[in-house]
Design a protein that fits this description.
Blueprint (H helix, E strand, L loop, with lengths): L1 E5 L21 E3 L2 E2 H7 L10 E6 L3 H7 L8 E4 L5 H15 L5 E5 L2 E3 L2 H17 L4 E6 L9 E12 L2 E11 L3 H10 L2 E10 L1 H11 L1 H12 L6 H8 L8 H4 L9 E6 L3 E3 L3 H8 L7 E3 L2 E4 L5 E4 L5 E4 L4 E5 L4 E5 L6 H8 L9
Parallel strand pairs: 1-4, 1-6, 4-5, 8-12, 14-16, 15-17, 16-18
Antiparallel strand pairs: 2-3, 6-11, 7-13, 8-11, 9-10, 9-11, 10-12, 18-19
Helix pairs in contact: 3-6, 3-7, 6-7, 7-8
């Protein structure tokens, strides 16, 4: 079984730590390791390094190789241009189909936190074993919801279809991206909805067949790239063809058109968190609700429910603060209310092309 970790996003919601030159998945956000390193390490020892792949932007290939020195260099795939998740996932399916078309593949992401590593590996293993016997299926891995999130996607699942080693496989019903407050509350209380993590296990052959059926124009380009993969022209073909692929999300390309009977859902509490934004990172790391989360040289006085990250040798001191976010990277000091994090992306966009563009 192979695992593909996608590490190509920029992550402006974690600015000023996450920048274009070094996005969030490569920065030391948790302890002394990046989330990319954590994503790869949580697969060990079940996935040997020669069964792990990383898909990223071509600019970031050297960073990936530096942070994951045990990963074979040929397993770091650098996309020449950002074309959204649809072509990115399709490219990896096309490449792995050239190696072994029915060997299960797990699609994972580099900017998440999973606390129950052993359970997560077990889920991937039993899902892979199921796909070995049922290669024309796709299995989604969902997180049992902890609260009615309006900022995450949700998966609706139905009856139990089978069980393996205590892991239940449910019927897949539907997906919903970022529902409103009332809908999210209803999903949370239903007992048959989970957070959609973007994690799934399938076979490359089946996934490519879905591309051929639903987005034939993208499939044609992927096939041209795949046919050249082990030739001397692979780099040239990738450079020439990949930027011509339609920019389309994986949901729009595949999931919205998928026959529900072709999919199953595993929904477990793997203690997953999306740490793509500062408030999400705080929720993931806080020891208890409304506790502070800090990193670096920090002294807090009468401060509650705040995140203070200091990446400098300076001492950051706070007094009488509540519900705040403070990040000091040396060249930028960000101070805002936790509830204002959604404005960071627009702020960074306004800085682009100005005298502060180098800070984006």
């Amino acid at each position: 079984m192979n695992a593909v970790i996608f590490a190509g996003g920029v992550g402006t919601r974690l600015w000023p730590l996450s920048r274009k030159k070094s996005p969030k998945q490569f920065e030391k956000i948790i302890g002394n390791k990046s989330t990319l390193q954590l994503a790869a390490e949580r697969l060990q020892p079940d996935f040997p390094w020669d069964h792990v792949y990383v898909a990223t932007g071509r600019t970031y290939v050297p960073i990936v190789q530096e942070q994951l020195p045990k990963l074979p260099p040929t397993h770091v795939i650098g996309e020449p241009e950002v074309r959204d998740v649809g072509p990115a996932v399709g490219l990896m399916a096309a490449i792995l189909a050239r190696e072994s078309s029915d060997e299960p593949m797990a699609i994972l992401w580099s900017d998440h936190l999973v606390r129950k590593d052993a359970l997560f590996r077990k889920i991937l293993r039993v899902a892979g074993e199921y796909i070995h016997g049922n290669p024309e299926k796709i299995i989604f891995v969902a997180q049992k919801p902890r609260f009615p999130s309006e900022n995450l996607g949700w998966i609706e699942y139905g009856e139990s279809l089978t069980e393996k080693e205590g892991i239940v496989f449910h019927a897949f019903i539907d997906c919903q991206y970022r529902p409103g407050k009332e809908t999210a509350q209803r999903y949370f209380e239903s007992g048959h909805h989970g957070w959609n993590l973007g994690y799934f296990v399938t076979s490359p052959r089946f996934l490519l067949a879905l591309y051929e059926r639903f987005v034939p124009n993208v499939y044609a380009g992927l096939e041209r790239i795949a046919q050249s993969w082990h030739s001397g022209t692979a780099a040239e073909v990738l450079e020439r063809v990949y930027p011509t692929l339609e920019k389309i999300s994986f949901d729009n390309a595949i999931l919205e058109k998928l026959d529900p009977s072709q999919a199953l859902v595993i929904s477990e509490n793997i203690e997953w968190s999306d740490i793509g934004a500062w408030e999400a990172l705080k929720e993931a790391l806080e020891e208890a609700e409304e506790k502070n989360v800090t990193q670096g040289k920090v002294m807090l006085n009468d401060t509650q429910d705040s995140l203070v990250y200091n990446y400098t040798d300076q001492l950051v001191v706070t007094i009488d603060l509540d519900d705040m976010l403070i990040v000091n990277t040396g060249d930028v000091v960000l101070v805002c209310k936790k509830g204002s994090v959604s404005k960071i992306k627009k702020l960074v966009e306004r800085m682009t092309g100005t005298q502060n563009d180098h800070l984006t």
